[in-house]
Structures are given as C-alpha cells and as structure tokens.
Design brief:
Blueprint lengths: L5 H9 L6 E5 L8 E5 L6 H17 L4 H14 L7 H13 L10 H7 L2 H11 L13 H11 L4 E2 L5 E2 L1
Antiparallel strand pairs: 1-2, 3-4
Length: 167
Amino acid sequence: GYFSSRVNINLREKHGYTYGARTRFIFRREIGPFYASAAVQSEFTEAAIREFFNELHAIRERPVTPEELNNARGYMIGVFPIAFETASQIAAALARIEIFNLPDDYYSNYRKHIEAVDAEMVQEVARKYIDPKNMLIVVVGDRKEIENDLRKKYPLKVFNIKGKPLR
C-alpha cells in the first residue's frame, strides 16, 4: 500500500496505467496469500500485468536502494500511530499478538524492528515468499476488450458474473 512503491511508480508514474497499484501480504497463522492489484483501463490490461511481473521479478533480483528502504521505513513508522486510533483497531492489534504468538512488547518494539530491516532482509523475504512463476492472475473487465490480448500470453479460464465457467 506504500504510494512510492516500485509497482506504483511503474504503473502509475512511468506508464500512466492506473491511479494506484499495490502489493500486499495477507498474514495468517500459516502462509497467507500475496497479491498485487490495480484498476486499469481495458486497453492496458495485458501491459499492466506484464509490468507487475517485471516488478515481482525485480524485487527478487535487484536489491532495494538505500533511498527506497529509507522511504519505506519512514512510511511504516509514520503511519504506525494511526493503526491505534479506534477501539476496534486496538482490539485487532491485541488479537494479532495472540493469533501470531507475538511477544507482549511487539508494538513497543515495532519501530525499532522496522529500522533494523536492511536491503538483504527485504530481498531474502521477496525470494522466499514472492514466486512469479506460481501466481494466479484474476482479471475482471470487459471480455471483448481484453480476452484476445490475454489469451496470447496466458492460459485463460473465463467465468461469468456468477462464477460459472464459460467455454
């Protein structure tokens, strides 16, 4: 969700495919999903998917720069306090301590742990948990506009609005 992320800079700033693109891990007790998403115009669907994959390969192969790392750290530390603005946010944070068996002082030490993250750690996690060869692509859009371009590059399964397979 970081606005200056590589994927957002690429798809939004460099190519103008979207207003915003993001990637995110969903944390669970066991390994949870990783996803990348953006709303793009139909004509840019295939190109946007290609750029997502370029960035997913790049984060595994090219270390983050000191500037990227410092900006991401600053963002995560800066938004940290707003994660505790409401009673439900506080309850969710406490639940995460229990669910993930985190130490009781997890949030007290959060900023210190974020500051300790280095480029090697980022790349290690990317290589371990982001596997572009093992991803499912879900596209929602005008089938007439996007299917032919996608079919040239990807094996497709098409579903109707109720989730029933077509063809």
